[in-house]
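Interim report to the steering committee. The following record documents the input for Beta-galactosidase (813 residues).
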Amino acid sequence: MKHPKQLLTVLLMAATCTLYAQRNETLLEKNWKFSKGDFKEASQPEFNDSKWESVVIPHDWAIYGPFDKYNDLQNVAITQNAENKASLKTGRTGGLPYVGVGWYRTSFDVPVGKDVTLKFDGAMSEARVYVNGQEACFWPFGYNTFHCDVTPFLNKDGKSNTLAVRLENRPQSSRWYPGAGLYRNVHLIVTEKVHVPVWGTQLTTPHVEKDFAAVRLQTKIANTGAKTKIRIETAIIAPDGSVAVQKANTGRINHEQPFEQNFIVNNPSLWSPENPSLYKAVSKIYADDQLVDTYTTRFGIRSLAYIADKGFYLNGQHRKFQGVCNHHDLGPLGAAVNTAALRYQLELLKDMGCDAIRTAHNMPTPELVELCDEMGFMMMIEPFDEWDIAKCENGYHRYFNEWAERDMVNMLHNYRNNPCVVMWSIGNEVPTQCSPVGYKVAKFLQDICHREDPTRPVTCGMDQVTCVLANGFAAMIDIPGLNYRDNRYQEAYDQLPQNLILGSETASTVSSRGIYKFPVEEKKGVKYDDNQCSSYDVEACSWSNIPDEDFALADDHHWTMGQFVWTGFDYLGEPSPYDTDSWPNHSSMFGIIDLASLPKDRYYLYRSIWNKNAETLHILPHWTWPGREGEVTPIFVYTNYPTAELFINGKSQGKQSKNNSSLKSRYRLMWMDAVYEPGEVKVVAYDKDGKAVAEKKVRTAGKPHHLELVSNHNELTADGKDLAYVTVKVVDKDGNLCPADGRLINFSVTGAGKYKAAANGDPTCLDLFHLPKMHAFSGMLTVIVQSTEASGELTLNAKASGVKSGNIRIQVK
Ligand code: GAL
């Protein structure tokens, strides 16, 4: 028997071992200091930052404005848009002050004798990371995740370590709002000397069928010496939390040598957008019989097939992509990542029937990829908008030759275990596509994808169809992706050996929520005095098209693989068609959903075709048109039903059925001759058997009477991060939206929350997002409130002159 004191020592040692055997991964979110500007000594521990602003990471230094026409004013010819003379581009990067140098400083404590890595999910941009005054790493591309081993720079005596990060954004470095600063999370990873390094596992499912799936896990181990004996015990955990299968393997594993384990999972629950089932491989690593690390690899089991002439198959089932492209900003929150905001975006898209996301034109934040795994969205992950030839004077081309491979490898290692990722893109509309040797660059990038991830094909968004068909560029890419140019699909299909065409970017229809223009005509590049576009969904840019064209391509040709619409959400910057000397426009009009996360009419058009499980019956325009009495005011109905009858003040305007007489009439029901008279518009929908099955009404609004508040959530998590999106509407006494109202609304939040931001979706509005007041646009806006870390109740109050105030209460738990 052991002496009690000895026993205590043994117990303490065991406790210490367990404690340190766990890798410790934390986010460095709080206690940061920030300042814009350059400071010679800011990397040094003794630098005095007490006067700097205190910030929480993720942080976007530019989103607080102010907006200014002269922020990154660009005098350029956008050659992709067929411009050959330079002109003044206003609001191209959002009119926000993202350009310049900024510094962030914090400190962190780690136990002595550990290996320590810092991982930055993204830092905008040209990040120089200093630990205790010494430069630990440099990573120029602002969108990519990078990590650095900071062990050599740590204080050896256990004293707090100083972390300083210098970031710099050059003018004319982007075609949209890039954000600025430490806008994504920073991870502190503390491990034993022997450990699984960042992205150290690669999990594939080489064989998938209904009855069983083969799972292959390759694990790298860092810092194994020649004599170290390694044992890896891995358990595969099923979606219900049970252990599906487990295995222990022992062997000699050299430093960073992949070590393979193979498993069979019986009756797997296959991952798909409709059934996003997730498994986990939990690996315990023993070095010389000591537990040194526990590493979890989340994955899904699903099969992908891209078959010539047939298209895309997920788990053996044919499907066409119903996807959207999105930029990374979160509208009024800027580029600063917030999981609740991302989740809400995906909820809206899911309800529309969208099943895929293209991360245009750069690496996403890891939270988005995780959410796509969990909520069921397929992803095309894209690294670049620019290769070796410039699109922007200070764009990525400055770094391409030296950094492209490292950037690709990080992206591929970061996301190759995520089941949602179904293909990689290597670029978007790169000028290199027209170079006679452009195919070599494409091959270089495609080969990196194949080398690092042999399980997924590669695509590239190509817009110069003539070039890429003639010079061999398109024939090189696993899956040829065309951006727009739907009139060239057939020709591309006929010529290309892949016998498949993907709509890597489609539509770019433009509209402003709640704004309608007369007469209703299809137009390209049209501009109006109010700098808005029509929500009849008939307007596009010279290179782009209305949604109906892409629906038809998917419906009519078995070799089309579906599409990624430009864009799901409006974004900051690129305010086409008001991009040339058109200040104050500073945000896009391409979105199906506006910058305030409010669906435009177009949302219901996509929903009516894409969401096969829900009823869509949507009427446009609104029916409050003082001054238009007696004038032709066409009415459109977006519905999944084949037929509907329209009534104005009870008088039938006749039945319409979807038909092949024109492109639009295949997908929309349209009463082009409807005449405005105040009152009520009613639509009655009929199913394919001629049975009346649904009804919808829109009424002319009376005088603005009160503010109506509706939240997307009645309950928030008390984590200081969760968000509620509250729609604020100006309505008449009966609750009808006053669709032309633009009054200023003031907000205040009391209780367990704080006001975060507001947005109204008006691309010309210069109200600052973070101030608690904003003008309504087309009668509406969105207020975002954030929970505190303490539970309780929060109340959002909204006030405006001339109408009754409104408020809403939200529980914070
Ligand atoms: C495409 C481009 C996108 C966006 C879009 C607007 O050519 O890839 O980034 O600019 O046009 O329609």
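The chain has a mean pLDDT of 96. The committee is asked to note this result when reviewing the revised timeline.
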